[in-house]
Design a protein that fits this description.
A hairpin with a 2-residue loop joins strand 9 and strand 10. This protein has a single domain, classed as Rossmann fold. The protein has six helices and 13 strands. The protein is elongated, with a radius of gyration of 23 Å. It starts with a strand and ends with a helix. Strands 11-10-9-12-8-1-6-7-13 form a nine-stranded mixed beta sheet, sandwiched between helices. The chain is of the alpha/beta class.
Length: 246
């Protein structure tokens, strides 16, 4: 079973975010980058499927994601494809670049994380499936391979699940918790150095979005009302009147 995994090199959500001088991008100085958390589960699920059914796992990363791709290779992926473009927050451009880069690849399944930990758009997987005209399922928590198809369980709201059957080739985006990602061993790191990491140059793709400006949300200050009960009540009435609530 040949599987393609999408892995993003993302900023740690605990990093302190600052707007760049141009007012239209994020200043990456001081940001800590690592493999996108949801994509850890995607690569782990792909490796488990390969261990059970055979085949090959190819990991694909957009941007300057060498460290993340090497980490995926150390986990057990067979080879990697790097697409050296800066797509920013443009999910359509990312999906278009991936579609072009994997056009010569033969695959049965594409696995991606449900979303990225930086922009949380949850769009690339669905867009790519549409571009490739293959069936897809999102927020998957279980994958079982059957004869020429996969049976998946999707996470729904309220703790419910939905079971679907997809013919192959297909694409799924996986939810965190679908498995327990393995630790990278020293031997895995050594083996990763000998595995193929190929850079694929795609055509000059135009951006589908235009950023006007990026800015932090306004800071709302709280007022602490002091005094006795009558004074506090009077101040509350004043505030309600000032805001047009009464």
């Amino acid at each position: 079973m040949n599987i393609i995994v999408l892995a993003k090199h993302s900023a740690d959500p605990e990093s302190e975010i600052h707007v760049a001088g141009d007012g239209k991008s994020v200043d990456e100085k001081g940001l800590v980058f690592d493999i996108n958390d949801w994509d850890r589960y995607a690569i782990e699920e792909a490796i488990r499927l390969k261990e059970k059914h055979g085949g090959e796992v190819v990991v694909v990363g957009v941007g300057y994601a060498d460290d993340t791709l090497r980490k995926c290779l150390a986990m057990g992926a067979d080879r990697a494809i790097k697409i050296p473009i800066d797509a920013g927050m443009d999910s359509f451009k990312v999906a278009s670049a991936i579609r072009e880069a994997i056009s010569q690849e033969k695959f049965d399944l594409i696995i991606a994380g449900l979303m990225s930990q930086d922009y949380n758009n949850a769009l690339v997987g669905s867009l790519l499936a549409g571009m490739l005209e293959i069936p897809f399922a999102t927020a998957v928590t279980e994958i079982r391979v059957e004869n020429g198809r996969i049976r998946v369980v999707r996470e729904l709201e309220g703790g419910f699940g939905e079971e679907s059957v997809l013919p192959l080739p297909a694409l799924v985006t996986v939810q965190s918790g679908i498995n327990e990602p393995r630790y990278v061993s020293i031997m895995g790191i050594k083996r990763a150095k000998t595995k193929e990491l190929k850079e694929v140059v795609v055509s000059d793709l135009k951006s589908s979005i235009e950023v006007d400006r990026i800015y932090p949300p306004p800071i709302k200050k709280a007022e602490i009302i002091e005094g006795n009960a009558e004074e506090i009540a009077e101040r509350l009435i004043e505030i309600f009147k000032e805001r047009g609530l009464i």
